[in-house]
Amino acid sequence: MTDSSSLKPEEVDEAVAAEYVVGVQSLAERSATEARIRTDADFAALVTIWEFRLADMNSSYPEVKPRNLLPAIEARLFPAAPGSAAVPLRVRLSPMRWLSGMAVAATLVIVGLTLLVPPRPDLVAVLQTTDARLAYEVRHFGERLTITRVAGVPAVTGQVHELWVIAPDAAPVSLGLLQDQPLVITYPVPPEGWVLAVSVEPDGGSPTGAPTGPVILTAAVGASDV
Amino acid sequence: MEDPIAELIQKCAAQDRVAFRQLYRDSSAKLMGVVLRILRERSEAEDALQEVYTRVWTKSGRYDATKGRGMTWLIAIARNLAIDRLRVRTETTGDDDMETIRDRAPRAEIRVIAKGEARRLADCFGTLEPERADAVRGAYLAGLSYVDLATRHAVPLNTMRTWLRRSLLKLRECLDQ
Fold this sequence. Notes:
Number of helices of chain B: 10
Strand order of the largest sheet of chain A: 1-2-3-6
Number of helices of chain A: 5
Shape of chain A: globular
Number of strands of chain A: 8
Helix content of chain B: over 70%
Shape of chain B: globular
Distance between the termini of chain B: 22 Å
Largest sheet of chain A: 4 strands, antiparallel
Mean pLDDT of chain B: 85
Oligomer: heterodimer
Helix content of chain A: 25-40%
Strand content of chain A: 15-25%
Radius of gyration of chain A: 20 Å
Largest interface: A-B, 60 and 78 residues
């Protein structure tokens, strides 16, 4: 980063692992570090060591009893019966199951970049219905992602389309609300294999920070994004 | 070393749902303390906590008891999830209250650490300049970003990055002695 020149090369990895564990990195830096943890075992080991090195500070966190979340967590992890796919995302599912559940939803289509007509360099993904009556394009300019509706209409009054990004093994994270104007956010290009999704939420967006309404569009980020 | 939490995590890896319930009972108040400290909003913290336990269950097979205590592993998952959510909230909406950050009293944290069982790390914090030790602690406990820290300590962002990196390397040197 900005001052890495002042650190010895072998110190840079240590410093990056430590600052990830301390938690000071920006979202983009954290994404990059997490990608490295997944692919570089030596670096992942540095991170683990830092987690245990700094663990003594954990004694400063007080205990705070949450309301009983166990039923909700178990409903999420251990759904009673398969085949109850009609249940919307009211019960928030883990991302992996969220995705497999989507296979059931026949109206959805996953469009990777590789499938797209002329790949424009800055096109990250297209989210669209099978009949293409509703479509959003996700493009990358500089440090920003711009999400533009290129077909269809916004959600009906009282509802809104909300955009989510899902990293492998992670919970959906809201990127914002899709309304009349294109949504512009400061965000890096999501790495290949990440998934973008649009859900229908009450006006103002999901009240819980996770998708609560039906997921109407998804797209996996393709390989050739630059 | 006796570590009942570690044993419960290992049972979760073997798909033991009874152990998962016990793990929730034995650890949820601590993990709630962690996510609430970072997210500062109860309903969001509870929502995050559900996701934390979902991850705990699905990742339990990756826990390696030889590398450290079970509670430390759980807290790492909770902190990472809470910090990611906090970054998304503040970076995409600009919704953070700098006053809150500035007003937070860092000194209280030092005292808690100093009298707890965290003797060794606390000793090593003593080798840092107090302001830099505060920066490390504030970031770790509350999930402050470089931007937050630079504001709080009224120094340029790059200066803060240099401070923090050097302080962390110095801590490592002290801890690994």
